[in-house]
Amino acid sequence: MTSGQIRQLLNESFKPELLEIIDNSAAHAGHAGAKSGGGHYHVTIVAEAFEGKSLVQRHQLIYKALGDMMKQEIHALGINALSPSEETKGSL
Predict the structure, then answer these.
(1) Of 9, 14, 28, 32, which has the fewest Cβ atoms less than 10 A away?
(2) 15 or 2: which carries more pLDDT confidence?
């Protein structure tokens, strides 16, 4: 269910052209963060909101969008945040 919540929050906040969420939680079973219920996720997101923003600013925007989920439901989050122009360059 957490992946669905992440998807909903990021879709609402960024209206992304691309959003992929990978749940790696099973690979971390027994990990200290997993014991408290927090999952391990990786997000790839392409959105206009990231145009002209630094890597740190992009991550801050995502953390803000996910809000309280970062305190318990999400223990680790890998982020690949791109603007549409960067995503286009990468596919050439």
Answers:
(1) 32
(2) 15
